[in-house]
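Quick board copy: two proteins, each given as sequence then tokens.
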Amino acid sequence: MNDKNTQEIELTPELVIRAYEAGIFPMSEDEHSSGVFWVSPDKRGIIPLENFHISKSLLKEIKKNKYQIRIDNDFDAIIHGCANFGTERKTTWINSDIINVYRQLFKQKICHTIEVWDKNQLIGGLYGLALNGAFFGESMFHTVSNASKIALFCLIKRLQFGGYSLLDTQFITPHLASLGAIEIEREEYETLLFQSQHIKADFYRLSGGNTSLDCLQSSSHTS
């Protein structure tokens, strides 16, 4: 079972960073609740970066090259999209406290967004935190089929190119499992997390990446 501890202390960027470094992350009961609780799952979801395999159907969509990819462009649109367009839950765990503190982390360039745009319309994307060699995926959404999968693919290419070693998805959903996510025990996760925090990665090392095809054609090797 998961460890779930309710805390009444103020949610700050510094507290969130320390929590992630310890393998813990915040959630709320629903969008209308105040405060957060802290979670450290017995089994953790990750996507192995070194063995990521893209499906034939997603590869076909990427090669169509229909959409634009924007990085760290519109945090508010992404987090509100994640809160409002989830398909696997009846309510959202993203409340105003979480939105406010992750907005601060976004301004500090610790929180990042991968955004999929169809001309001037945001159709999908994701956000998460980058700390040293780990990226902690928070949430993703889509309003057009495959848009969130394209965002995740572009994130993975960016993490590979930037020298990251860990992509944490927190939990496993059928959607994430279809994209290669696996579950590992907490002890194994903590080892990977510890190792990742001794890596100096760079989220912006991949230049370009303005379309999904750009991401596909980028090398995953760093210099």
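And the next:
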Amino acid sequence: MKASIAIQVLPAVSDRGELIRIVDEVIAYIKSSGLHCHVGPFETTVEGESYDELMDIVKECQHVAIRAGAEKVSAYIKVVYQPQGELLTIDGKIAKHAEA
């Protein structure tokens, strides 16, 4: 793995149900990428071999939220990129904290 992102998408909607529905659509899109991901309570983490592919996912998350009905969307993103060698994976970071 050469890169990972963590993305929190916040659609501007007034209804809590709509917020959840739109975020669920964004998460479904991320999962459809086929890349390894982990959904957390504040953000979704995705890892892959291509920095550009991950940046395309970041961009498309905004489009998915708008198409789903958000008038405006904010996103908070963390990016780790290491073209040489291997990054610590999602599983490597959280496995010891997983509930038994």
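Board note added afterward: The chain has one domain: 3-97.
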